[in-house]
Amino acid sequence: MLVKQPAIYIMASGRNGTIYTGVTSDLIKRVYEHKYMHVPGFTQKHRCKYPVYYELIEDAYFDASGSLIPSDVDHYSEVSGSVIPNDVDHSQPKI
Predict the structure, then answer these.
(1) Which is nearest to 63 in space by CA: 4, 1, 22?
(2) From 88's CA, which of 29, 41, 59, 77 has a CA 20 to 30 Å away?
């Protein structure tokens, strides 16, 4: 059985053109589909067929149906350099 390796990726239509971001479990197949416009939609309409970036997602899991289940790891602080306080209640607005 082939182990799925989730990845995020960015496709572009050209220099300073339209960009498209996506998530997939089969990066090579998905880039091929975008490049040769096999799937109708945004990337076919805007001709986003050049891969410009990808990153493998190491801490993601798939359920029995193959759907991506994101991890509970907080990546916000890694990306932004700041920390979200955990003691703030965001459930109800204060009036």
Answers:
(1) 4
(2) 59
List, in sequence order, every beta strand (DSSP E) within the chain.
Answer: 7-12, 19-24, 50-56, 61-62, 68-69
Distances (CA, A) of 29 to 2, 24, 36, 39, 40: 14, 9, 11, 12, 15
For residues 59 and 10, the answer to whether their CB atoms sit within 8 Å is: no
Mean pLDDT of the chain: 77
| Exposure of 43 in the CB half-sphere (CA atoms within 13 A) | 22
Q: Mean pLDDT across the stretch 64-85?
A: 56
H or E stretch including 28?
helix 27-35
The answer to whether 21 touches 53, Cβ cutoff 8 Å, is no
